[in-house]
Amino acid sequence: MFDRRVTVVVGPYGSGKSEIALNGALALARTDGGRVALLDLDLVKPFLRARSARERLRDRGVEVVAPTGDNAFADLPILLPQVRGLLRDPGVRVVADVGGDEAGSRVLGSLADALPETDSDLLLVLNFRRPFVETVEQAVAMGRGIEAASRRRLTGVVSNTHLKQETTPEVVREGYELAVRAATRLGVPVVAVAADEALAARLDPGEFPQPIFSLKGFLRLPFEEGLSVRTTGPLFVLN
């Protein structure tokens, strides 16, 4: 599902989109052999951002583009100037983690001129065990809102229904069935079924026409990393 040069991963809070983006970038670094950049464009929520795994990603060949220093976990709309250059550079494989919902996806609208028209994917991650996206109708409304805010059409859905450590194969199957129904109404395919690596090993690949994307957990909350969280400041910061 990371076949095109630029893959943008979107989804509501708690869907697991950041973990999927991170694992996708790592997979590209292992197999592609070229330069790989992970753009942390989650500008809305201060928790579980890909930037919290910056050093571990760098050591594995992934360049993380995100604010640093005091602004690393600021709940501020910080868009770094090098983002456009990377999106336009044909020599770089890019994975972009875009925040939350319609509000978070507006950053894509501001980058519409830099996204390659024919060599990018916009993937919606769905977890039907999270509030506000518990039904097919809510998922479709979320997807349409993201499309309107980002000024881009979705190209696929990733089924990632989970309950953290309490996830069972039955939970994954139920979420997949809902994801198929939502994707059909959105007019796009389900491109993968994501699951934690331990659970993925228990799933029967024959149950799903799509590949199972095994996730290794990397993300930590800021207080687990010994970082402070800044929640005040100017309305806009340009690093």
Features:
8 strands; eight-stranded parallel sheet; alpha/beta; globular; disordered C terminus; 239 residues; Rossmann fold; 7 helices
Protein described:
With 239 residues, the chain is of the alpha/beta class. The chain has one domain (6-216): P-loop containing nucleotide triphosphate hydrolases (Rossmann fold, 3-Layer(aba) Sandwich), CATH 3.40.50.300. The protein has 7 helices and 8 strands. The chain has helices at residues 17-31, 54-59, 82-88, 102-110, 136-150, 169-186, 197-200; strands spanning 6-10, 35-41, 62-65, 92-98, 120-126, 156-159, 190-196, 212-215. Strands 3-2-4-1-5-6-7-8 form an 8-stranded parallel sheet, sandwiched between helices. Helix 2 links the parallel strand 2 and strand 3 (62-65). Helix 5 (136-150) packs across helix 6. The radius of gyration is 17 Å and the shape is globular. It starts with 5 loop residues before the first strand and ends in a 24-residue tail after the last strand. The model is unreliable at 69-77 and 221-239 (pLDDT under 50).
Outline the fold blueprint.
Blueprint: E1 6-10, H1 17-31, E2 35-41, H2 54-59, E3 62-65, H3 82-88, E4 92-98, H4 102-110, E5 120-126, H5 136-150, E6 156-159, H6 169-186, E7 190-196, H7 197-200, E8 212-215
Parallel strand pairs: 1-4, 1-5, 2-3, 2-4, 5-6, 6-7, 7-8
Helix pairs in contact: 4-5, 5-6
